[in-house]
Design goal:
The protein is mostly helical. The chain has a domain of 114 residues. Helices cover 78% and strands 0% of the residues. The chain is elongated. The termini are far apart.
């Protein structure tokens, strides 16, 4: 909850509650022609202003080290190229449109991913890259194997892992 709130706060602070129609066309904060923070605030609806106030109060309630983490994330976000910021914004909006159950599942998967060892995360990233670069037939075969894996009991999975280990040792 706090991480989601922190991300929302960072995105909110980055855009002051309202993204321009096309973020890549918007001047960078502080650039000539960019609206001031006051002008951006004035453009917000009363509901947006109240949501921003609530997020600010929640941010203020966080420990100083967590606030610093959020500020670092915001600095990194602002340093990204406009196209990457726009991609992040679109992904966030797509995430927000998902049903609550799916968002909870994604958060749980992400939590488990963060708990993995760096080596395991690297292997998973590589597997995802391979999947993205695979032919449609290869992807279909992978998804079918994944479906069958999920249907297996823990004992069946362990037997299959053991068989795989034995084959690799040969």
């Amino acid at each position: 909850m706090i991480r989601r709130l922190a991300l929302a706060l960072a995105l909110c602070l980055a855009a002051l509650g309202r993204a321009p129609a096309r973020a890549q066309d918007a001047p960078a904060p502080g650039a000539a022609g960019a609206p001031s923070a006051r002008e951006q605030w004035e453009r917000l609806t009363p509901e947006e202003r109240e949501r921003l106030r609530e997020r600010w109060r929640a941010y203020q309630a966080l420990p100083p080290e967590r606030q610093e983490e959020i500020q670092d994330a915001l600095r990194r976000y602002r340093a990204l190229p406009p196209q990457r910021r726009e991609e992040i914004r679109r992904n966030w909006e797509a995430f927000q449109r998902l049903p609550p159950r799916e968002r909870a599942e994604i958060r749980e998967h992400f939590r488990r991913f963060r708990e993995m060892s760096p080596e395991r995360r690297a292997r998973l990233r590589e597997a995802i890259r391979e999947m993205l670069n695979a032919t449609p037939e290869q992807r279909e075969r992978f998804l079918e194997n994944l479906r069958r894996w999920r249907e297996m009991t823990p004992e069946q999975r362990e037997r299959l892992r053991e068989e795989f280990r034995k084959r690799r040792e040969r």
